[in-house]
Amino acid sequence: MALFRAGPICTKPIRSRSGPCQRNLYGLSAEPLSDERDVMSDPANAPELYIDLPKTAYAPGETITGRILWALDHSPKKLELTAGWWTEGRGTKDFRIEATVEWNTDASAGEESFPVQLPLAPYSFSGTLISLQWMLELREHRHEKFVTEPIVVSPSGEPVLLPRIDEGERKSFSILRDR
After folding, report:
1. CATH match for 4-169 among 1.20.970.10, 3.30.230.70, 2.60.40.1930, 2.30.30.370
2. How confident is the model at residue 18 (pLDDT cuts 50, 70, 90)?
3. What confidence tens digit (pLDDT) does each residue in 49-65 have?
4. With bands split at pLDDT 50, 70 and 90, how would you rate the model's confidence at 102?
C-alpha cells in the first residue's frame, strides 16, 4: 500500500519516486511519506488525502481499482481523481489526462472506492532524451490540496528503456528522398 501526503511545491527536477518530491499533472508536487510511523509519532505529519492502491504497475488497458481516503478539517465539497501522463526531457513537454473520477461530498472525512480504465497506450518509458511517466492525482479544489501516486503502465510492469543510439548507427531520414 502506498500512502502519500500533500506537500510543498518542489523547485528541483524530479527523477524518481524515492526522491524528496513528486510532480503532479499540473506541475506542482507532493512529498511522499517516508514511513507510516511518521503519522503516529507526530500528528502534524498526518496526511489529509490518500490514494490507496494494491500495486503501482499496470498493463495497458487494465482497470486500476483502489480507494481514496480523506481526513480534512473542512468539507471538501468535491474530490477529483485523475489518471494521466507527462513527458520530461528535451523537446516539447506534453501531458494528457486520460481519466477523471469525481465525488461530491459534505463529509470532512471518508473513503470511496474507484475503478479507472487505462488506455492501451502510451507506455511508461525512459530514454536519454525523453521519458514518459504516469500518475494518479487526488485533488481537493476548495483549499488546493492534492496528493499524487506515480504508476507504471507497460506490459512488463517496468518502464520501457529506450536504448541510446550511437552517432555512427544513425541513418538520415527523409520522406522526400525516395521520390
Report:
1. 2.60.40.1930
2. very low
3. 999 999 999 999 999 99
4. very high
Angle at 124 between CA 131 and CA 49, to 5 degrees: 100
30 confidence band (pLDDT: 50, 70, 90):
very low
What is residue 39's DSSP assignment?
H
Strands (E), the chain: 4-5, 22-23, 29-32, 49-52, 57-58, 63-71, 77-89, 95-105, 109-117, 125-126, 130-140, 145-153, 160-161
Q: CA–CA distance from 9 to each of 24, 26, 28, 34, 114 (Å)? A: 10, 11, 5, 17, 27
* DSSP count for the chain of H helices, then E strands: 1, 13
pLDDT at 38 over 90: no
| Pairing outcome for strands 160-161 and 125-126 | parallel
The whole-angstrom distance between residue 143's C-alpha and the CA centroid of its chain comes to 20
Cα gap 1→33, rounded to integer Å:
12
Residue 107 CA: distances (Å) to CA of 79, 128, 161: 11, 46, 44
